[in-house]
């Protein structure tokens, strides 16, 4: 996380409060669109932790889902999506105040589905690996 030091979100990252109430409650989650795709950040707080004082696995999965949906829909510019399959492996723990980054990768996009994979990283370590399939939904 070269320019995203512990505890700070660089100015070029955005968040969209009010877009998704569940993500608002868990996050906020931040994103920055690059030429390669989306770079997403999350700064966990005490409310995001489990009984052991580490970031809860469900919170990590929610952040991964946010990130993969941003990539699958190109930030919901022309369509929405719904996650229909999600697989994850917890590799190490994440702590309060240590930025978590995800740079999801779209593996394949068909007429109705998008296949996405990625890793959550914190303090130079992979925290979680995931893959997912989302259903493409046309704008309502």
Explain how this protein is built.
- It is built from two helices and seven strands, in the order αββαβββββ.
- It has 140 residues and is α+β, with helices and mostly antiparallel strands.
- The chain has one domain: Hotdog Thioesterase (Thiol Ester Dehydrase, Chain A), CATH 3.10.129.
- Strands 1, 2, 3, 4, 5, 6 and 7 form a seven-stranded antiparallel β-sheet that branches.
- It is globular, with a radius of gyration of 14 Å.
Topology (SSEs and partners):
Layout: H1 21-26, E1 29-33, E2 38-42, H2 57-73, E3 79-90, E4 100-102, E5 105-109, E6 113-122, E7 125-138
Antiparallel strand pairs: 1-2, 2-4, 3-7, 4-6, 5-6, 6-7
What tags apply to this protein structure?
140 residues, Thiol Ester Dehydrase, Chain A, 7-stranded antiparallel beta sheet, disordered N terminus
Structure summary:
The chain has 140 residues and is an alpha+beta fold. Helices cover 16% and strands 39% of the residues.
Largest sheet: 7 strands, antiparallel
Question: Termini, distance in Å?
Answer: 37 Å
The overall pLDDT average reads 92
Rough shape? globular
What is the chain-wise order of helices and strands? HEEHEEEEE
Rg on CA atoms, Å: 14 Å
CATH superfamily: Hotdog Thioesterase
Secondary structure tally: strands: 7
How much helix, percentage-wise, in residues? 10-25%
Number of helices: 2
CATH architecture classification: Roll
- As residue ranges, the low-confidence spans are 1-5
Strand content: 35-45%
Reported by name, the CATH topology is Thiol Ester Dehydrase, Chain A
The domain count comes to 1
Q: What is the CATH level 1 assignment?
A: Alpha Beta
Structural class: alpha+beta
